[in-house]
Amino acid sequence: MKDFAGAPADLRAVLMDVADVAVDYDAEFGSRTTYRVGGRCTAMITCSTLAALSAVLDRVGSRPIYVLGNGSNTLVSDRGWDGIVLVLSGEFEQIDVAGNRVTLGAAVSLPVAARQLAAVGLGGMEWAVGIPGTVGGAVKMNAGGHGSETGKWLSEARVFRYHGHGYELRSLSADDLGMRYRSSNIGDRDIVALASFDLVPADRADSKKAISDIVNWRRDNQPGGQNAGSVFVNPDNDHAARLIESIGLKGFKYKSAEVSQKHANFIQATPGGSADEVFDLIWLVQQRVESELGIRLRTEVRLVGFDPDRSSHLRGG
Ligand SMILES: Cc1cc2nc3c(=O)[nH]c(=O)nc-3n(C[C@H](O)[C@H](O)[C@H](O)COP(=O)(O)OP(=O)(O)OC[C@H]3O[C@@H](n4cnc5c(N)ncnc54)[C@H](O)[C@@H]3O)c2cc1C
Hints:
By secondary structure, the chain is of the alpha+beta class.
């Protein structure tokens, strides 16, 4: 595993006096994802106010950044990543309710939001209880399930667009955000700060029941352990899990990684295992599905620090 301990004297200098920011150099990155494998990053910068985030973006220059939510759709290579990981906390964890309009900070946990909104009699976000990500990650990925998705309820988002020498802060409408199946117009240099949702009045008991049904369904149908949910997006009119299972790869093991026995589109890591072996198994599954069924699956999971050519191929490039 690479370390980045000696790297950024200039970075230390520019970040020294920024308020409401915690900087951890040569920080653990892979262990902050739900895969819980993978290496370190040059710096992990946690911003707890909008002002702090603005100041950081003004100062970090053209260095690559990765915004980390809960890491539930992220796989980091064993050698780590030479870049800045941005984490949001504090002000970004607020939930504000005004009538049917709810404004959620990007760092709000989806299951927490689902339960709190149900408890105040607002319906629409119950599905989010089963998705272990943050609001920022959900906007970028248009996360969804159980017949609903982020884009169905989202009305606008406040987004920092970072261009390597500062940023612009914009309010983007649902149209601007271009929400589509497991994707949106939020690019790799955009940081979602807040998102507003227009929900509907709902009976608290009905929402509570819907939430409990979803939690039970997830327990019965999806594996626990170290994974990032579905690895591949579903191709048109089919399911990646069905395709993988149809060629006998359900339960297939490759070194420390395994195609889940319970859900063939989940690929599991193991404690003390290797992110590169997870990546190699994702590669193997994509290759086998393509050679045997003529369908090229594309990854949903974000791949950080791996070979760029293979990563781009996996993402459908
Ligand atoms: C057990 C399990 C079940 C899952 N089930 C589902 C499901 O049913 N449906 C579904 O859609 N997904 C599912 N997922 C995947 C994942 O939870 C979602 O994609 C989630 O929205 C990712 O949020 P995150 O905060 O963890 O994102 P991360 O993994 O931290 O990041 C994912 C991407 O979003 C970007 N990002 C994160 N925060 C921000 C921000 N503030 N601004 C800009 N970009 C940001 C990252 O840079 C990265 O590109 C599941 C995952 C697990 C582990």
